[in-house]
């Protein structure tokens, strides 16, 4: 497990970008109160998802409006048609952690790689 940040660093309804051994991860505090982590790049236009809007457990890409389900990585709105990698999140003692593989990078929990 690798510590990403404190929960207070990600207020409800916001996103931060974190570098985890060279991999950009968007850490999201959904308006549903849950924490999520996804690859910080839209599968449609290769722009940072961390600059997008959060609603419930979805994240909208700021450039073309593609929406992604933060639980599965699946697009829920066009123009994106490919999912983004999703990473398991563990909240422990006020901190956000991601599990990492032997290479020091988070392993997608939905099997999608980029």
From TrEMBL:
Keywords: 2Fe-2S, Iron, Iron-sulfur, Metal-binding. CDD domains: Rieske_RO_ferredoxin. Gene3D superfamilies: Rieske [2Fe-2S] iron-sulphur domain. It holds the Pfam family Rieske. InterPro entries: Rieske_2Fe-2S (IPR017941), Rieske_2Fe-2S_sf (IPR036922). Residues 2-98 form the Rieske domain. Coiled coil: none annotated. SUPFAM superfamilies: ISP domain. The keyword Nucleotide-binding does not apply. This is Non-heme iron oxygenase ferredoxin subunit.
